[in-house]
Each structure stands twice: as C-alpha cells, then as structure tokens.
Amino acid sequence: MVEGYSLRGRIFDAVVYLVLVVLALSCIAPFVHVVARSLSSYAAIQESSVFLWPVGFNVDNYEFLMTSDRLFVRTFLISVARVLAGVALTLAVTALTGYVLSRGDSLHIPGLGVFKFVMLFSMLFTGGLIPIFLAYKSLGLLDNFAVLVLPGALNVFYAIIMANFFRGLPMELSEAAFLDGANHSDVLFRIFVPVSLPALATIGVFAAVHHWNSWFDGIIFMRLNTKWPLQSYLYSRVTQQLLQNRDTIDPTQLQNMTPEGLTAAMIVMATLPITLVYPFAQRYFVTGLTLGSVKS
Amino acid sequence: MTTDQGSTIRARFVRPDRYRRTPKRPAFGVVWQQHWMLYAMLIPAALSLLLFHLYPLWGISIAFVKYNPVKGVLGSPFVGLEHFDRFFSGRLAFEIIRNTLIIAIGKTIVVQCIAIVFALILHDARIPILRRAVQSATTLPHFLSWVIIGGIMVQFLGSTGPLNQAGATMGLPRVNFLGNRTIFPLILILSETWKEFGWGAVIYLAALANINPNLHEAAAVDGAGRWARLWAVTIPGIMPIIALMSCLSLGGVLNAGFEQVLVLINSLVSETGEILDTYVYRVGLLEGQFSFAAAVGLFKSSVGFLLILLSYWLAERFANYRIF
C-alpha cells in the first residue's frame, strides 16, 4: 500500500477498478435487458432491436399479467402465502430445536444423541427422488399446499447455527431465570428469542428467499397448475419457450404481445421481491457465514 | 504421553469423558421431571425427521422389486439387482455418469478459480463505495432461482436475443447457444460461474480480511512489491481456506446442478447434458418406471454419501477442519 502513489501503482489501480466495473456490469446487464424487453413494444421485440433500454415503451405486458392472466395472479398469491407460512414455521422449529440442542449437551438428556445422529444422517443421505415422491404421496401430500412448507420446516443447518448462537449467549441470563423459577419455555421465549432477533432475522431472510425461489416441489407434487407457486409456472413458460426457440404467437389471445415480452415481465415480477429483501440479506450474509462458527 | 504425537493420537481415539460422565448421569425419571419440556420442544423436529426423512427411506426397497402400483411394494415380485444391471449394461449409463462428472468438476474448478481471483482483486480496491457496489452486483444472481436465471438466459442468448443481434450486426452467423450439444456443458459451467462467483468470493474475502496487516507492512519494508507480497503473504494467508474448499468440493462431484440442468436441457442437447438427477426424474416421474429410476437414484445417493464422508475426512486430515 506504500507505493500506491507512483505512476505504476495508479495504472495498476485503474486496471483493477476497470476489471471490477466490467464484472459488475456483466452481472447486471442481463437483468436490465429483460426489464427493457418487458417494457418494449411488440414490433421492437420481433425485430429484436431491444438492448438495454425499452423501445416503444409500454406496460401492456404487465397489464395483461395483472388483469387477464389469472394463473399468474393465482400462483403469485400462492407464492406469497408459501413464504409467510414457510418462514413462520421454519423460525418456530429452528428456535425450538436450536434451544434443545444448545441445552442438551450440558444436561445429558437421554435420547438426544440418537436424535442428533438421525439429524446429521438426514442431511447426508436421502432416499432419492422416487422414494420421497412415493412416501409423500402415501402421506396424502399430493396437490396439498402443506407439501410446499412442511418438509422444509426443519432445516438441520439452520438448527445447528441457532444452537451455536444460543451457546454463545451468557450463561448468567438463563441461570438467573431458572433460580427465579422459570422453566425452559420461559427462558426460550422470554429471554433467548428477544436477544436473538438478529440471528432469527438472518435465518428468516434466507428461508424466505428459499421459499420464494423453490419450484421443483411444485412441479412434481402438484398435478394441477392452479396449485403451483409462481416459479413453477415460470418454469413451464421458460421451458416452452426454450423448446420452440423462436417466438411463435397465438394471435387470437395476444393482440399486442409476444410470449417473450410476457415471460420477461413475469421474470421481472418474480425477481422484484428478492431485490426488495436483498439489502437485508446482504447485510446479514456475512453474519450468516460466521454465525455457525462459534463453537462451544 | 511420552511424545506430542502420542498424546494427540490418544486424544483422538480414547474419549475419557465417556468414562467420567457415566456415574454422574442422573436417573431418567429425574431428568424427565425437570426437563420434560425439552422433549416437548423437540416434537416438531422429530416428527419432521420421521415423516420426511426416515419414512421415505423405506421406499428404497422399491429399487429391488418390479413395482406394481396396484399391489404395492410388498406385493411386487422381488428382482434383486436386475434394475442396476440393466442401467449399467446400457450405453446410457456411461454417457450420463460422464456428463455428470464433467459438468460437476468443471463447475467446481472454474467457479472457485474465478471466485479466488475476483476476491483478490476486490480486496485490493480501496474505494469503499465501489467495493460495496461491485459486491452487491456480483452476489445478486446467487439469490435468484435457476428458473429466473434460465429465463433470462433464454431471452439473452436466444436467436433473437441481444448477443446474437450484436453478433449479426458485426456479420457473425447466429448461434443457437442453448441448442448446441458441443457447447452445452460449457454453457452450464459458464452460467453457473456467472451466478455463483460473487457468492463464492465472500468466504475468501473474509479470509483476506483476517490476514494480519503487519505481515504486509513488514514485507513492504523489506522491499517486496505488490506482486511479491501477493505470493509471499496473501496467497499463503488464504491457502487453508482454499485447501478446505477443495476437500469439501469432492463431496459434490455427483451433483452437477439438478435445477439448472432441468431448466436448460432440451432434446437437442440431451446427449451431453443429461445428468443422473435429470435422468432419474425423466425416467421415473415422467415415464413412470419407478423401480428402475429408484435404482439409479439409490446408486447416486449411496456413492454421494460415501464421497461426502470421504470429503469430511479429507477436510479434517488436510485442512484441520471438523464439520461436526
């Protein structure tokens, strides 16, 4: 850092900044293009004259999605419901399990070793797609909203992070409460949870992103597309377009829109919620990485 | 206890606390009375493990029978390893395993290399606002699903997309990037890199921030230039993390990226793009050959399990890192 003021140092700095800016732009440009395309006119998309700025600006694609594409509105709402239910459930299970794991070591709770073993085993070995599909089918989870939130309720990784966070809290906090006659649920919900809100928020943001982004479970467990989350619907549109690989238009349905423009608008709508929580996710993601590293 | 090495070996294999703990352990009745609430708190997690992880394991047995959906697994005739035999004797097995390995290994190497170089460059940038902006831009794709990224790729790389359009104005022929089986694995590797290098750099940036600045200053005083310090201070400083990531990546050698391939694969590229996961999905759930697909899936998850254990062992042995 000493020779940074020499000419060579400055040229080096300039090259470094140039590389960084080019990398950052290459990550953003495709998104900008899709936004521009979603706001462009039918003719402009047909001539593929859209680059990073809308050509023939209009909001027809968005208007169509909101007013005429009932499946879009429906799947969007299902995704919102899924995120809310999924995050609430994940946080509850994570806090409860993390608490027991953080306490169990010092209390020598019988059976906890078996539980931990099963938990770690489940993280490393799964039955595979077919056994899982058949098992969930026999549990009556096909075409059932619960299949989108219940299987992800226990995330072993989150539970371990939470347990490590609880272990890092000062022992005096809980010991004073136990002396005053508090039980485990008092300690967890009145002391541990309130002081762990940043950790819970981190896990909540990650769970929300996960639930918003999941689509494969919708495709395999929901036979009716009216029960899909938004990204499953988007999947079916993207693969259709990939197969045709050329914009074929159904003129009876879409007077002034290309399927590409509509898909672009749908991609923007699916990306928007992520970009809204992104600043929070970003603030916490380094915390998330280091949170689990505190070991007892 | 005679030598250092002797005591380490003993510490690893003998667990003295196990013997010390036994007499102190209170009776179960006492524990239950005082701490029954802990068991109650564990019910949701235990139910979840039981229903969604342990119960499906029973379904693995379907891989060894000729499954009849009407009669169930127990009513179906037992065929032993016939499904495995059929898979491995076919030409497809070689092709699919080859694709899986090429794509997975290619991704690990390219993503990690770019992430390391990017972290080194970003660490050198001295304008805080620029650093933050670049990091925000490059990690954003990590938080989006492959459906969104795939949709963007179809639009961006399609025959009417801006890349082809720009090429056409320069007189280049239009290329069907997503329908060419020669370059399809490369497209998968590069798009994975584009999506994940920013996120992958986070861990290296943390390691870089932990390098003692005195080392840099001392080296600079000794006359080491930027380049010399990179090789003498910076690279050795992040080497433990590089070693750890290399060990752990072995566990994912059969995971070529199910969701990515499922979004981007099409009939034109299946020869070089079909991987174990997409094959199980296609043959099992789309074509209904449950038993055969379950056998292929069991092969994958068993080998994957062994690879993960091996990678954890390597990480402990060579990178001095304990997972559990």
Beta-strand content estimate of chain B: under 5%
Rounded radius of gyration of chain A (Å)? 25 Å
The top-level CATH class of the largest domain in chain A is: Mainly Alpha
CATH superfamily of the largest domain in chain A: MetI-like
Sketch the topology of chain A as an H/E string, one letter per element. HHHHHHHHHHHHHH
Counting H and I runs of at least 4 residues, what is the number of helices of chain A? 14
In short:
The complex is a heterodimer of chains A (296) and B (324). Chain A is mainly alpha-helical.
Structure description:
The complex is a heterodimer of chains A (296) and B (324). Chain A has 14 helices and no strands. Mean pLDDT of chain A is 86; it is low at 245-252 and 292-296. Helix content of chain A is 72%, strand content 0%. The longest helix of chain A has 38 residues, at 70-107. Chain B has a single domain (82-318), classed as Orthogonal Bundle (MetI-like fold), CATH 1.10.3720. Chain B starts with a helix and ends in a 6-residue tail after the last helix. The model of chain B is unreliable at 1-14 (pLDDT under 50). Chains A and B meet through α1, α4, α5, α6 and α10 of A and α3, α6, α7, α8 and α9 of B.
Helix and strand topology:
The complex is a heterodimer of chains A (296) and B (324).
Chain A: H1 7-38, H2 42-46, H3 60-67, H4 70-107, H5 112-124, H6 129-138, H7 146-149, H8 156-167, H9 171-179, H10 184-195, H11 197-213, H12 216-221, H13 230-244, H14 259-291
Chain B: H1 4-13, H2 16-24, H3 28-58, H4 72-75, H5 82-89, H6 91-124, H7 128-139, H8 146-157, H9 162-169, H10 184-209, H11 213-221, H12 226-249, H13 258-264, H14 270-273, H15 276-286, H16 290-318
